[in-house]
Structure formats: C-alpha cells, structure tokens
C-alpha cells in the first residue's frame, strides 16, 4: 500500500458513517430518473451487489452418467405491454415546455377552485409533488376582496397542508390584523403549491410548470387586489425582473380572463424575520393596501 492510498479500515468507517446517516443509494456521474427506472434493472443491480454464493462441497461419489443434451425451447415473441394513458401530466421527467403545456391545458378545464385543487392533487408533471408531504393549495376566504400570494410552502406549511402556518405566517397574520384583515376576509395562496426540498427557491422550470395553476386560481377567486409577498411571486405574476426592494410598494396591472386588477408588491414575512428593520417598508405597503381597499368600497 502506498503512503497516499487510503487504509481499508478508513474506507469501511467512511461507508459505515453514511449507512448510519441513512444513505441508501449510490450516485454516479450520469443522472438517473429513479421513478422511471423499471423493476428488472433494479433487481439486477441488487443481484450484482450481493456476494457470489459459495459452491457446495463436492461429496466423494461414483461418477454420474452424462445427462442427455437439453433442448432449448423456441423463443416466443414478447407481447408489447400496453401503457395506460395519463390525463394528469406526462411525468416528473417531462420536458419543461411539455410540463408547462400540460399544466396550462389542465388548469383551463377547472370551473371552480375545488376542481382546480383536485386537478393539482393528481398532477404528475412537477417533480416537487413526489418530495413534498402535502399539497398546499390555499387558506382563508376565496370570496375576499384581497388575495395574498407567496412563493412556496415551507416545512410547517408542508406538514399542515395550508400556506403561511409557521413563524412567517404568524407575522403575516399580525400584519393583516394591523389594517383590519384576517383569514376570514383575505385569501392566501402560493405560486408553487409544493414545498421545494430544503426550503430552496423554486427553479425556473418549477415556476413555469406551476404558474398556470396560480393564474387560474387568481382568476377563479377574482379578488379586487392581489398582493405579492416577496420577489419570486412578484416576478412570476407582475412580469418584472426588478428585485423586491426595488419593486416593493409599486402597483402593477394584472390581467385575468375576466378583467384587469391591481397588483401590489411587498416584502415577504420570512424576509422581515431576518431583517426586522425593513418592517417599516412593509408597513407603508400595507397602509397603501388599506387605503386602496377603502377607496374601492361602494
């Protein structure tokens, strides 16, 4: 063994550590879609990883007569397997354009919010649904005049199945209460209805796939004012490329299939928990929201 070569005991300790940590798969340089992988290759991989069986000891006995040659059966043609058609997306491995197209066609068929939630629950073209615990569709009153939209659920929301349930949700409730709102007269949702692993930001493909559903959700709820919480929601729905600190406090036009409504950009409560001094900016935005709701009353 050369001085630079690792000791076999070190390698075994390294493997034992990862097994104890819950690692149950080995990755290589080529990506694989484990959900699309057939059962036969997985059995073959497991068989290759098992140690070869030791040959049984040969007992001393008289030599046996040679067996007659075996006749191999004639190969039979394999019948093609029929694939069941899917009406809820191609799969998590669908190309970005195909997944977004599936979502657009499917969302357009929903006539009510209940139908839209049911379609989302069976939609399979977004890989996030396979790593999340629950679909996080909406909370609050869908008949309300104002709708708040965040970016994606976190761990608390994923566990409960409703948006803004953790510390950021508690802060949002206090911010709404300061201007006379709560979840009985406000509607709350997210651009992406499934939690991204590790609370990371949604990828552009995930946003493009989920965007038709939140657009249809907004159209069906038909609020007077739409409030985007954070930069991800603002860029997805307002069409701006500016950061949230530049776009917050601004009003944007938002067009549904029924009418044009007003969209207000403001800071996400999770950001305010990390930057408490910025609450003064959010307070200005919420005061502007209150003034707009008061001005729109008959």
Strand content: 5-15%
- Secondary-structure-based class equals alpha/beta
Distance between the termini: 86 Å
Q: Report the radius of gyration as a whole number of Å.
A: 28 Å
What topology, given as strand order, has the largest sheet?
1-3-2-4-6-5
Order of helices and strands: HHHHHEEHHEHEHHEEHH
Number of helices: 12
Q: In percent, how helical is the residue content?
A: 25-40%
Major sheet size, sense and barrel closure: 6 strands, mixed
Low-confidence stretches: 57-63, 79-87
Give the overall pLDDT as a whole number: 83
| Inertia-based shape | globular
Query: How many E-type strands?
Result: 6
Descriptive overview:
It is a single chain. By secondary structure, the protein is an alpha/beta fold. It contains twelve helices and six strands. It has helices at 8-20, 39-49, 96-107, 113-121, 128-131, 155-160, 167-177, 204-221, 231-238, 244-247, 269-274, 279-295; strands at 138-140, 146-150, 187-190, 225-229, 251-255, 260-266. A six-stranded mixed beta sheet has the order 1-3-2-4-6-5, sandwiched between helices. A hairpin with a 4-residue loop joins β5 and β6 (260-266). α3 packs parallel to α8. The protein is globular, with a radius of gyration of 28 Å.
Task: Offer a quick outline of the entry.
The chain has helices spanning 8-20, 39-49, 96-107, 113-121, 128-131, 155-160, 167-177, 204-221, 231-238, 244-247, 269-274, 279-295; strands spanning 138-140, 146-150, 187-190, 225-229, 251-255, 260-266.
